[in-house]
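User: quick one, fold this
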Amino acid sequence: MTFGEKVIEFYEQLNPPPKLPQKVETLFPFKEENVMEAVRIYNHKYFNDTNRRTFLIGINPGRLGSGTTGIPFTDPIRLKSELDIDNSFDPKQELSSNFIYQMIAAAGGPEKFYANNYFTSVSPLGFVMDGKNLNYYDIKDLEEALEPYIVNEMKKQLQFGARPIAYSLGMGKNIAYLKKLNAKHHFFESIEPLPHPRWVMQYRLKRIQEFIDLYISKLSS
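Assistant:
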């Protein structure tokens, strides 16, 4: 199986985590055929080989990005404009996706970038509460309930072909949690932090080129 075929199989077999705290809902787009069609096209297009890749690990999917499209850090707008994948999703923008695809363009474009890198998240599914995005670490009971699920799904993804050095997209709670898990389960030789794309877009937009260059420098090394 190619890297991409393994990813497709992973999402075809993915189930929501059980026993979440009250009022927490799971974003589960993969039950929709139009989402799985986009996932299949994307993975056949960019991961049609058996090469290992560097894992870039976000927090968890958001409503306007992969919580809609099923493709990490890819909103419906970028799915069409940057990846040339037609879709019928509501064309809303996600800030993280905006940064990521500016960075990918600067790195040489999707074909070159995805030949070496794979986006995922600590949790492959996202969460909402009261209609708003929820990070896995925002509620302690949620974080604790998710840990077995997170560990199990990460181990499955490592079988795709992971390089020994991974990157956390998030320099605060996300990297701290990943380092704690990695110390227990030895997913990677090391996990290094990169600033989260949303943080760059919200708080450091005037310095965006600096952070694009940082990503490219880290990933090229």
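User: anything notable?
Assistant: The radius of gyration is 16 Å.
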